[in-house]
């Protein structure tokens, strides 16, 4: 089936299999491998991207379902060579170790801060409930998001 999507500001037209997940489409057709696949069963959040501004686990969506949508992946966050404030905050605050969960954590946080620019620690932890990290114990991830929220004011 043919789909037309905008990804990170670029228009794409591709033929895809009806059962191809959006995560697989992004990684294998567009070579945007910053979107990670950890579980492929909607549990870990590593594959989170935004569709029309809303954070979505891309392994749970078929590519054909996003025909006509505007998608942002982790590769689309930096502007003019400058990291997005969330990327910078994760770097500054040691919000990652192996980095596998990081693209999903950041894309979830983009939506979280858009909806709630001044989240409490509890609200951040609640917002990250669908994203797992095996390395950090979450403390520095939460701290990173708090610092990003401050710097985005
Ligand atoms: S790979 Fe999509 S939620 Fe884990
Ligand atoms: S930094 Fe390793 S899984 Fe989160």
Please characterize this protein's 3D structure.
With 153 residues, the protein is α+β, with helices and mostly antiparallel strands. The chain has helices spanning 22-29, 85-92, 102-115, 121-127, 139-151, and strands at 2-7, 10-15, 48-51, 54-57, 70-72. Strands 2-1-5-3-4 form a five-stranded mixed beta sheet, covered by helices on one side. Helix 2 crosses helix 5. It is globular and about 45 Å long. The N and C termini lie far apart (43 Å). The model has no long low-confidence stretch (mean pLDDT 97).
Unreliable spans are none
Shape: globular
One letter per element, helices H and strands E, the order comes to: EEHEEEHHHH
Name the ligand types: FE2/S2 (inorganic) cluster
Biggest sheet layout: 5 strands, mixed
Strand content: 15-25%
Give the structural class.
Answer: alpha+beta
State the end-to-end CA separation: 43 Å
Helix coverage percent? 25-40%
Short overview:
The protein is α+β, with helices and mostly antiparallel strands. The protein has helices spanning 22-29, 85-92, 102-115, 121-127, 139-151, and strands at 2-7, 10-15, 48-51, 54-57, 70-72. It has a five-stranded mixed beta sheet, with helices on one face.
Any descriptors?
5 helices, binds FE2/S2 (inorganic) cluster, alpha+beta, 153 residues
